[in-house]
Specification:
The chain is an alpha+beta fold and 631 residues long. The chain is built from 20 helices and 16 strands. It has helices at 26-31, 33-44, 51-55, 71-77, 135-141, 169-176, 179-195, 197-213, 216-264, 275-293, 304-317, 322-365, 367-372, 376-428, 434-475, 538-545, 568-574, 589-594, 602-611, 615-619, and strands at 3-6, 19-20, 81-86, 99-102, 108-115, 118-123, 131-134, 145-150, 492-493, 497-505, 513-522, 553-558, 561-562, 575-578, 587-588, 628-629. Helix 6 packs across helix 9, helix 7 runs antiparallel to helix 9 (216-264) and helix 11 (304-317) packs antiparallel against helix 15.
Length: 631
């Protein structure tokens, strides 16, 4: 049976009486002074955020601190805007203040104001009391960058119509932050496309002017100039790829962190029912990342050059331009026609891949049960059936993709043949030169190349779109915290729990009530045992009392305050919950005991191990607290 345990205030054995809840535990604040400064700066800006709330959901380094790179995301999550800036303190405009300053000695402060040659600061260990320090002395202690904080533009939430597309903000908002990389890569693409004209006109002039006259000086002059242009084109294309890779890497890291943080914030009762399908959904993000970290986005910069190349063909080859011009809409129509069946096949394949992943996870998690009941054939049959279905849908995707690519390649070849045939007649009619024909054929290849690339990206786009829809469905699930809402953070928690006419039903198509109009009260320090048959709702009730589930009707009160009004991270830091299915994480004994509270010392860990009467097991192992633990 699961147990509900109030957490201790100072370590040791849990006490069932009262629990003190200071706004920011001193051990935490001193472990991460910059984070404490962030909470003080938020208070100065009129957007107070509790210390525990500020860091909730963010990874900590080995010192128990939030990495500096995560502060802009952390500020955004808590309703602020932040950016690191490399600037000297004397050059900071007054309207930018306050700013956060990590110092080289490990401390941190909030720079509130600059008066004459002095800086007015708030120190993490001094609280909201202004301190004065010489500006030169603070500059000597400062790191190269400061964190500028400000409130975002205020928008009234009561609108007559919902904001369109707001469901995808978690993805596009993060990607938009790194738009500079993609814009610069598009500029490099434009320059590279212009430089590529050098080799085309070099070929045309050599055949038309150099070969008939034997002008070798002109030949070498043109060759040297074209070689320089080719080198510059190589630099531009390398720069484009480099910028796309950098932008994709930064966006990937930020989106991955946001994705897991958002998924971890899903209310427990709304989590995906299948662990395997859930893991498959996370894996689908890889296709999304591959699409946006490739040259897919900057391919848009190549599209306008289709018209430019067609215009050049018209200037050089005259009526030959109609051949590639008619092929362009044909390729576009083929691509659009193929999208619907490709999307259908892609979604079917993603569903079957999720089923296969679900079978695999179930077989690993329940291997002991399968062996004990000699039921390996059950999952083996499901695995083979899901593999067969997945192979069929993948074959359909490959068939459609090969069909698109095959038609595109054939059209390109037909264009070349048609232009050569037409060009021969124009040459004999003295309307075109041999160099002009060769240049027109090369230009037609350049004009069709972006469209051919679009065709090859069609399948990847559909996979990315399906992945985005799948992941966005997870993002739409109810959250533990409502963004922008200020929750109550009590100064003291006595531990009294009360359920008033509580009702609950698990989400789904058929919402069958599990808890019906239940009322009960547990006084601070009181011990209560719940007995009942299997499936009667004991564990569900405990999750409701612990705030892990949200009641469908009625309320759960902690010391008279509705749990839905109290900051969730504060409730979980002051109320212990032990479920009936214990879980371990891959790592060491130390990792499993401290989890996110990396400021906890080994001395405190040993005290807890002794209290639980398992210290001897750890002490006799050669690795001690570093003893490896499997999942």
């Amino acid at each position: 049976m699961a147990k509900l345990i109030p957490m201790p205030t100072s370590g040791g054995i849990p006490s069932p009486t009262s629990v003190q809840a200071p706004p920011a535990p001193k051990s935490d604040a001193m472990a991460d002074p910059l984070l404490m400064c962030m909470t003080m700066a938020a208070k100065l800006l009129g957007r107070p955020v509790h210390y525990q709330v500020m860091r909730a959901g963010f990874a900590l380094d080995n010192r128990g601190r939030v990495p500096l790179a995560a502060y802009p995301d952390m500020a955004h999550k808590n309703g602020l805007m932040a950016a690191w800036s490399r600037v000297r303190l004397s050059e900071i405009p007054h309207y930018v203040l306050p700013v956060l300053m990590p110092l080289i000695d490990g401390r941190a402060c909030v720079l509130r104001n600059i008066q004459d040659n002095d800086a007015i600061v708030l120190w993490a260990d001094k609280g909201m009391e202004d301190q004065r320090i010489p500006l030169a002395e603070l500059q000597a202690l400062a790191r190269p960058e400061v964190l500028a904080l400000k409130l975002p533009p205020k928008r009234h939430d009561q609108t007559l119509a919902p904001l369109e597309g707001s469901a995808f903000n978690w993805f596009w908002g993060t990607l938009w932050r790194f738009r500079a990389f993609y814009v610069e890569s598009m500029v490099a693409t434009v320059v590279a496309n212009i430089l590529t004209l050098a080799s085309i006109f070099f070929t045309m002039n050599v055949y038309d002017r150099v070969v008939p006259t034997g002008a070798y000086t002109s030949l070498w002059t043109l060759a040297i100039g074209t070689t320089v242009a080719i080198f510059l084109e190589f630099i531009m294309r390398w720069l484009k790829a480099r910028l796309v890779d950098l932008g994709g890497k930064k966006a990937d890291l930020a989106i991955n962190a946001t994705l897991l943080r958002e998924i971890m914030a899903i209310r427990l009762e709304h989590r995906p029912q299948s662990v395997g399908i859930f893991a498959s959904s996370m894996r689908d993000f890889e296709s999304l990342r591959d699409f946006f970290s490739s040259a897919s986005l900057v391919l848009l910069a190549d599209m306008p050059f289709v018209l430019m190349f067609l215009a050049l063909i018209a200037m050089v080859g005259g009526p030959l331009v109609w051949i590639p011009a008619l092929a362009v809409p044909l390729l576009i129509i083929i691509g659009l026609v193929a999208q619907r069946p490709l999307m259908s096949a892609m979604r079917q394949n993603m569903k079957e891949s999720g089923d296969k992943q679900s079978v695999l996870v179930e077989s690993v998690l329940n291997l002991e049960l399968l062996k004990a009941h000699n039921a390996e054939s059950y999952l083996q049959r499901r695995w083979e059936m899901s593999n067969l279905a997945g192979a069929d849908s993948y074959k359909r995707i490959r068939s459609l993709t090969n069909w698109i690519m095959g038609i595109t390649t054939s059209i390109q070849q037909v264009i070349t043949v048609a232009m050569v045939v037409g060009g021969v007649y124009l040459i004999h009619a003295n309307q075109l030169t041999l160099g002009g024909l060769i240049a027109s054929v090369i230009l037609s290849g350049r004009a069709i190349a972006p469209l051919a690339s679009v065709m090859s990206l069609a399948s990847r786009y559909q996979q990315a779109a399906s992945s985005l829809e799948t992941l966005d469905g997870l993002m739409k699930r109810p959250r533990d915290r409502t963004h922008g809402r200020n929750y109550v953070v009590p100064e003291m928690i006595e531990g009294g729990l009360q359920a008033d006419v509580l009702e609950f039903a698990y989400p789904g198509e058929h919402k069958i009530p599990v808890i019906k109009k239940l009322s009960m009260q547990i006084a601070p320090g009181q011990k209560v045992a719940m007995l009942g048959r299997v499936g009667s709702g004991k564990s569900t009730l405990l999750r409701l009392m612990a705030g892990l589930y949200a009641p469908g009707a009625g309320s759960v009160r902690l010391d008279g305050v509705d749990l839905q009004q109290i900051e969730p991270s504060e409730v979980r830091s002051r109320m212990g919950y032990v479920g009936q299915d214990p879980q371990l994480f891959m790592g060491t004994v130390r990792d499993n005991l401290i989890l996110a509270d990396s400021w906890i010392t080994d001395v405190k860990i040993i005290e807890v191990l002794k209290a639980l009467n398992i210290y001897d097991i750890v002490a006799t192992h050669p690795l001690g607290l570093d003893m490896p633990v499997t999942e």
